Amino acid sequence: MIDHQYVELLDGTGIDRDEAGGKAWALDRLVEHGFPVPQALVVRSAAYRAFAATPTITAALDDLRASPLPRPAETAAAEARIEKVFLTAPMPPTVEHALRDAVSSMLDGHRIAVRSSATAEDLAGSSFAGQYRTHLDIVTVEQGLDAIRRCWASLWFPAVCAYRRHTGVDEKLLAMAVIVQRLIDADWSGVLFTRDPQGDGSTLRIEAVRGMGEQLVSGQVTPGDHRISRRGLRVASTHDPTPPHLEDLARVGLRIERRFGEPQDIEWSIGDGAIWILQSRPITVAAPLAPFDDGFDTHPRHDDRYTPQGVAEMLPGVLPPLIWSMNRPLLEGAFRTMLARQHARPVTVARPFVARFHGRAVLNLTAIQAAASAGGDAEIENAYLGTDDGTEPDGSRARLGDVRRIWRAQRRIEDDVGVFTTAVACLSAIEPDLSDSPAGRLIAYRHELRDLAARGALAELSASNAAATAYRSLETMLRRWLGPDAGRREAQRITSGSLGRVSVGPRRVAALAAVIDDHATVDLRSELTIAPAAEARRRLIARGPEGISLAEGIETAAADLGCVSVYGGATYLERDDDLWRLAAAAARHRSLPPMESVDSMIDRAIGSAGRRWRASRIVTGQLVDVRRRLLRRLARDAIRFLGMREEAKHALLVLGGFERRVIAEGARRLVRSGNLRSLQEIELLDDTEFDEMLAGTEPVGRGTLNRRATTLERLHGELPLPSSFTGTPEGAVAPAATSDEITGWAASAGIATGRVRQIRSIADGELLEPGEILVAVTTDPSWTPLFMLAGGIVLEQGGPLSHAAIVARELELPAVLNVPDALRRLPTGAEVEVDGTSGVIRPTIDREAVNA
Asked: Is the peptide bond before 545 cis (omega within 30 degrees of 0)?
C-alpha cells in the first residue's frame, strides 16, 4: 500500500510541486494531459527531510556548508565521501518501509529507473539539467533503495553546490524528491528541444541514439542531430543515426510546448514502435527568441538583400502571427508560379521570396534575382528599389520573352482575373450562415476560401507585373523622344486617365458616396465631415430616423467592401474609425471631369516631339506610324492590366472579408470555451494553431500568447525598416530636422507647399489637417481618405504604379515617392515644398519670421 506521507503515484490528479520537485510535477502534468508517460511514482521531499534530520546526515551537511568547495581535482573524491555518508546513514523505519513498498510495487516483474527531482530544479532563470543523478536498469528492491539514497546525495555534490550558489538558490529549505519509473526497453532514445537553442526559433531539434539514452547524457556516443521546421514539420537537416517517427516526435514535442506555454527540453524513448516521454522541462539555459521576435520572424541569410518595396502595400505594417501565416504562403506561391510561367521552367530557389523582419514583410531581392532567367541586378533594383541612374532601360527586349509568349501570358492573366473576380461575386450571393456550423465545417470552408485566394493573389501579382512591363516600355519610348523628364511626365499623364477610378480606395469612396447621395440631406452630409470622424455615427444616430437610416446604409455598404487593407485582416465594420473616415471622404466626394482620351494624349505627346517617324508596310506599301501604334498598345496594356490588378485586389479583399467572418466566429467560440481571453487574441495564433484550437486539440499556452502580445506591442512602436538592407536590418534613428533638398521619384506632377505631418499608421489620420504634407513610409488602400485631405504626399516607399501614385495623380495631388529616410529628414511641423514634377522636396523659409 502507498504511504501518501512519503510517496505519491504520478497519475495526473495533481501534486504539490514543493513536495514532488519540478521534474515529477511536470511528469504528472504530462499524464494529466494524456501524453505517453511510463508508469511512475514520486518519493516526496518529506522522505528526504525526515532522512536529512537524522543526526548523521545533519552533521555531515553542517560540515559541507561550513567548508569551502573542493578544487576540481578533488571533486570525484568529495562526491564519493558524500555518497558514502548517504548510503550508510540509518534511515527512519517509517521512511524505509514506505520506500520498500513503493519500489517493490514498481518492480513487479519490470526493470525501473530512479531519477532525481529536486525542489530547486528547473526554476525560472536557471536549470539544473544534468547536475543530478539518474540510475537505470534496477531489478531489485535493495538496488532501488540505494539509488534513492544516491539521488539524495547528489543534491550536495560540489558541482551542484557551486551552481546553486552562483544562481543564488537558497539552501535553507532545499530538498530532493525522487522519481521511480518503469524502464522502457528502448530501441531509440534522445532529447528534443522544441526550439533549437542554437537556431533562430523557427526549428526544433532532435538528438537521438540507438538504445538507452544514458549513452547520450554521458557523452559516450555522438547522437544523430535533426532539425525540423516548427511549421509544416519539414526536415531541415538530418544526420545519422536517424530514428523512425521524426515527424511524430516533433508533433508530440510541439503539443507539450503548447500545454506548458514555453519552449521545452524533452527526454524521450521509442520502444516497440511507441513514443514515450520520460521528462520535460523549460529551456532556460538559452533564450529561444530575441527580445523583438515573436517567433515568426525570418532567420536572415547574411548575404541576401531584402526590401519592403513592392510588398508593403500588399502586407502593410506590423503583421500579427495570424495575418502573416495566412498571407505569406499566398504571396510566396504567387511569386513562384508567376516566375515559373514567365520563364517556362520550375523555380528551384529553396529560400523564401517573402520574409518577415521586426514584424514587417519584405521581399528577398537576391532570391528573386536567382529565380529569374532574364534581367540583371539593375533591373531588379529598378523594379523594387527605384534606383535610376538616368540610363535608359532596354525597351526593345520584352521581359516575358517573344511576342507570342507575351500574348499567351496576357491572355492567361486576363482569364485568371476574370475567373477569380466572377467567383468572388458568386460567393457574395451564396455566403453561408456560420453561426450553427460545426467546427469541422468552419475549417473546411476556410480552406476552400484559401484555395480561391491563392488564385486571386496570383492574378493580382501577374496583372501588376504585366502592367509594369507595359508601363516601363511606354516610358522608355517617350523618354527617347521627349527626354527623360518630359517622357516620364507624359507616361504618367497618359496612363492616369482611368487608373484611379478603378483602384480599390477610390472605388470604396464611390460606393459610400452613392449611399450618401441617396440618403443624406445637406445637414446629415455635414455631420460626416465634422472632425473627429470616430464620432460621426453617434452624431447621425442623434439626428433621429433619417440619421439612423443613413448610418445603417453606410454600414451595410461597408460590409460588402471586405477587409480594410490585407486579406483576412480587419474589416471596416471592425475598425469604426476607418469606416467613418472613409464615409467623411465620401461625403466630400465630387465627380471628376471627363478625361482626355488616350489616343489624343499620345497624339499630343508625339506632336510635342517636333519629329515624325514613319515606316512603310512592305505588303501594301501603305505608310503607317509604327511608333504611334506601339505607344497606343503599350499605354492601353498598362491601363488594362493596372485595372485588372485593382479588380483582383478588390476581389481579394472581399474574399478576405468572407474568411474574416469565419475567423470572427471561431474567435467567439474560443472565448466562450476559455481558450482565449478576448476576441482580439485570435490575431496571436498562427493559421495552423487556429484550426487546431477550433477543432479541440491542444491550445497555445497562456505564456506564449502573452509573449506574442507584448512583442507585437513593442514592434508597433519601432521605426520602419530601411528601404533596403543586407542580412539583418539595422536599427532606425530618431527624426531630425531637414535643411537640404531631398529627391525621390516624381510620382504625380504639381507643386504643393505646407507643413509636414508624419503619419506612421492609419490610426494617426485624425492628426492630419487639410492641406498638410502627408509624410509616411508607405500607404495602402485604406489611406485614400487622407489623400483627399492632404496638400501633398511624400513616401519612403512606392513606385510610379503603386496605389499611392495612382490615387495622387487622379486627385491631382503632388507626390514624391521612394524618398530615403523621409521620416527622419522631414519631421512634423517642418515647412516644405513638394515638387511632384521634378521629384524634389525643398525646405521653405518663413519670410515673416525672417523679417521680424
From this structure: no
Distance CA 588, CA 837 (A): 26
Integer Cα distance of 484 and 169 in angstroms = 73
Cα–Cα distance between 685 and 355 in angstroms, integer? 18
Cα–Cα dist 22/152, whole Å? 15
What contacts 545, CB < 8 A, 6 or more positions away?
none
Give which of 491, 501, 467 is closest to 602, Cα–Cα.
491
pLDDT at 696 (0 to 100): 79
Can you give the pLDDT at residue 729?
84
Give 257: exposed, middle or buried? Use CB within 10 Å, 0-12, 13-18, 19+.
buried
Q: How far apart are CA 393 and CA 402, in angstroms?
A: 18
Where does residue 409 fall: left (phi above 0), alpha (psi -120 to 50 degrees), or beta otherwise? Answer: alpha
Provide the edge-to-edge strand list for the sheet that holds 815-817. 742-743, 840-843, 831-835, 751-758, 773-776, 792-795, 815-817, 745-748
Q: Which of 568, 624, 632, 577 is nearest to 604 (CA)?
A: 632
**Residue 221: its pLDDT value, please?**
61
Q: Is 142 left (phi over 0), alpha (psi -120 to 50) or beta?
A: alpha
Closest CA to 637 of 479, 464, 506, 490: 464
pTM assigned to the model: 0.68
92 phi/psi in degrees, rounded to 5: -55, 135
DSSP code of residue 394: -
SS3 of 318-379: the string is: ECCHHHHHHHHHHHHHHHHHHHHHHHCCCCCCCCCCEEEECCEEEEEHHHHHHHCCCCCHHH
C-alpha torsion sign, points 318, 322, 323, 328: positive
DSSP state, 73? G
- DSSP letter (8 states) at residue 300: P
Question: Which residue positions in the chain have pLDDT lower than 50?
Answer: 121-130, 218-219, 285-289, 374-378, 387, 389-402, 615-616, 618, 732-738, 847-852
Nearest-angstrom CA–CA distance, 755 and 305: 35
Beta bridge partners of 237: 227
The set of residues, in sequence order, having a beta carbon less than 8 Å from that of 264 and lying 6+ positions away, is 192, 193, 194, 253, 256, 257, 280, 281, 282, 283
Shortest CA distance to 341 belongs to which of 280, 246, 276, 416?
A: 416
Give how far Cα 248 sits from Cα of 106, 338, 775, Å: 29, 35, 51
* Beta carbons within 10 angstroms of residue 23's beta carbon: 26
